[in-house]
Each structure stands twice: as structure tokens, then as C-alpha cells.
User: Fold this.
Amino acid sequence: MIDLHLHTTWSDGVSEVADIIREAVDFGLEAIAITDHDNTGSYALAVDAAKDTPLEVIPGIEINTVWEEYHQEVHVLGYYIDPYETNLQQVIETHRKNRFAQIEIFAEKLKEKGIDITYEDILAQSRAEGSLGRPHIARALIATGKVATISDAFNQYLTRNCDTYVKRKTVSPHEAVEAIYESGGIPVIAHPGEMQQIEQLVEELLNYGLRGLEAYHKSHRSAIIEYHCTLAERYNLLVTGGTDYHGEAAGYKKALGRLCIPSYVLPKLKAERDSRGMASFKVS
Ligand code: AMP
Ligand code: ZN
Ligand code: FE
Ligand code: FE
Assistant:
């Protein structure tokens, strides 16, 4: 059993890295990938926490992008990346600055609406080295008592159709796929079931190094899984899967590892890594 899509406090998850590793080991998983949004800071900690266990920690990331042509968010997963590679770190650094800038304007707009919230209140919901995101605003809004749930916060203040919404400067899915590929990693489209124009996107991204589709995802029904497995086969892409676990307090109670992912997924992912001549690198 594996789980290739997990978030920690290094982005918008609520579980610490060591807790994720302990849960994965207790549940008997063979391998996991921590795929924090635009951040690889947890990798060294995860390797350290897993060192005396049978659990394999695959270096991973989830890069949040926007496909401007269709005003659509596309999340790109990267597996067996080199988390310290310069180009990838530059993309991460760009996202980091853009996230701070976006959230600072969000705070100003919320203040204009009469909500008693500051940029510092939002920063306090996130760890300093981690990726700041809208879920951290949602938690700060809950703390003010203005909203009851994360979902209410998104619906009332944080999604594209809200007048408090602030767009974030970001990279294209093409750039994210290329950065992952160039860092020696395997780029995969995350939760493709949420996407429109998926076939066009796949065809475009193949030219930048796309290697897989996350057909198995907690939000995908059987028909969606089957569709994306068929699509992957047509384009000779890998199939991957994960729960997109954000921790128990985020409403994903006991989700880690609780997803049936076929046993061929991990060997094929490793075969792809090996065929690219990628050597496992050492944590510095
Ligand atoms: P950001 O990184 O600021 O773009 O926020 C994106 C993250 O917010 C996603 O990865 C989800 O974890 C979360 N999210 C997005 N939309 C919603 C929603 N409607 N309700 C709850 N969480 C959401
Ligand atoms: Zn998230
Ligand atoms: Fe995602
Ligand atoms: Fe995710």
C-alpha cells in the first residue's frame, strides 16, 4: 500500500511531518510522497523520521499553477525530484514571494470589509518556512468568529467570485512540468478529475515532459478513475494515486493511506525513474 499525495504543516496541512511518518508506518504503508504545495522543506525531516522504518519516502512536490487560456487552476505533482536543484528552487522561491504578496492584499481587502484581521494574524497560522495559502486565511477567519468552517471561508471570501478575492501571480502548468522534469523528477497532473479540457492539457504538456496522471485520488469516483487510466494508456503515461491528506482537523479524518491504489503503480514509477537514469540523491 502506498499514498503519493500528502500535505503537512510545510504547506496547508495540519499534521507535522513526524506524525505523518508515524501514521504511515503504523498503517503499514510501503511508500509515501509528501507533496506540499510549492515547498520541499519537509523532505529531509521526513527521511530522518523514517530512517529506522521500512517506509520509503519519495521526494515530492505539488506545484500550484494557472492555465491562463482557460482561467483554470492546474496542480502539478513531481516525484523523485531533486528537492535542492537550482531551477526548481527558483520556481519555489517565486511562488513564495507571490504567495506573501497575494495574502497581504487579501488581508487589506478583508480589513476594508470590516473584518478584524491582520496580515500578521494570517502569518501566525503558517510556519515561517512553509507555503502560505488561502487555507491559512480561512483559519484566521475562523479564529475571528466571522465564519464557522474552512468551506464557509472559501465560499464567502476566498474564491474567484468573491469581491475580496486576490489573484496570485504564478507559473503556467507548462513551466511547472518542465521545472520538475529538468530537476530529474517525474511530472504528473494532480486530481485531473477536477479539470476541464484535460485531453488538450495532456497533449500540450507532453511536450514539456509530462509523465503521468493521478487517476486515483480521494475525490475521484470509479468512472473518473477508469477514464483517466484509459487516457494514461492512450498517451503512454503513468498512473499514480494518493489521498491528498491534509491532516485530521481539516476534515479528512483517517484518510492517510485509505485509498485502493493498484500494486503496479509504485514499480512502474520506479521503473520510470530508473529509465531516466536518475540516481537517488543524498540528503545534504
Ligand atoms: P492556495 O494555495 O492559496 O491556492 O489554496 C489552495 C488550497 O486551498 C487547495 O489545495 C485546497 O487545499 C484548499 N481549497 C481550495 N478550495 C477550497 C474550498 N472551496 N474549500 C476548502 N478548501 C479549499
Ligand atoms: Zn492543499
Ligand atoms: Fe491539489
Ligand atoms: Fe494536494
In short: Strands lie at 2-6, 31-34, 56-67, 72-79, 186-189, 212-217, 238-242. The pocket of fe (iii) ion (ligand 3) is lined by residues 62, 75, 190-191 (CB under 6 Å).
